[in-house]
Specification:
The chain is mainly alpha-helical. It folds into two domains: 159 residues, 3-Layer(aba) Sandwich (Alkaline Phosphatase, subunit A), CATH 3.40.720.10; 79 residues, no CATH class. The protein has eight helices and six strands; from the N terminus they run H-E-E-H-H-H-E-H-H-E-H-E-E-H. It has a two-stranded antiparallel ribbon. The chain has a two-stranded antiparallel ribbon with strand order 3-4.
């Protein structure tokens, strides 16, 4: 809670405000949580921005058998990777139910939903357990530090954008899609619009480059991470 207030959120709602009637993994199940989120969204004054964090797709991926629907073989099912697959499958189902309910409540027509992650998945914690599986597919072992980025609006035609970017690019990309004048963000946003850029890379916070970029541009991008950290640590926007 303190961390969220420190980066500018005006109102935060924690676990004490929910009925913890079903736990999976670290806490309240995604299905129960998202059902309880809907009336909170409906009650908000428009326009609003809501940021929510789900838990079921987080480690330790020990989702109960009653929630598993993929019929994996025993070795895979008993592994962390199998638990990860099942947890993501469950989370995906719950997000679908959540979006359907927003639609039923008439909220979806003028809402944009952005789904992303704050860090990589199973490889972050259990890379060695994947390597030790007796039967495995090559792509299971690949760790490109990828997180999902799904932007959805009702009636929007589906399209896959293969441009490599990072979380720093979320704000300008979403602003662009919303039709906000570029003058409102192009000189202040640190990232770039992923839909109209010729650049195809991102730099992780440890300085590693994903994609291809020359050294000069890499050093420039690294400054973006440094500036972002300073903005957060100084609570910069609180005084604007």
């Amino acid at each position: 809670m303190r961390a969220l207030y420190s980066i500018g959120f005006e109102k935060c709602t924690d676990e004490t405000s929910f009925n913890v009637d079903e736990k999976i993994g670290l806490g309240l199940s995604d299905e129960s949580y998202l059902k309880q989120i809907v009336p909170l969204i409906i009650a908000q004054k428009k326009p609003f921005y809501t940021f929510i964090v789900t838990l079921t797709s987080h480690m330790p991926f020990n989702i109960d058998d009653k929630y598993r629907n993929l019929n994996l073989n025993k070795e895979l099912n008993d592994s962390y990777l199998g638990g990860y697959f099942e947890s993501i499958h469950y989370a995906d189902k719950c997000l679908g139910m959540f979006i359907d309910e927003l639609d039923k409540q008439g909220i979806l027509e003028d809402t944009v939903i952005v789904i992303s992650g704050d860090h990589e998945g199973v490889h972050k914690y259990y890379q060695s357990s994947i390597e030790n599986l007796s039967q495995k597919e090559d792509w299971w072992l690949v760790n490109n530090k990828e997180i999902p980025l799904i932007i959805y609006h009702k009636g929007m035609q589906p399209k896959v954008i293969n441009t490599i970017g990072g979380q720093i690019d979320l704000l300008p990309t979403i602003c662009y899609l919303l039709g906000i004048e570029s003058s409102e963000y192009q000189d202040t946003a640190i990232g770039r619009v992923l839909l109209n850029t010729n650049l195809n890379f991102t730099v992780l916070d440890d300085g590693k480059v994903i994609g291809e970029v020359d050294e000069e541009l890499k050093q420039h991008a690294l400054k973006g991470i440094e500036i972002s950290d300073k903005i957060i640590s100084s609570n910069y926007f609180n005084g604007r």
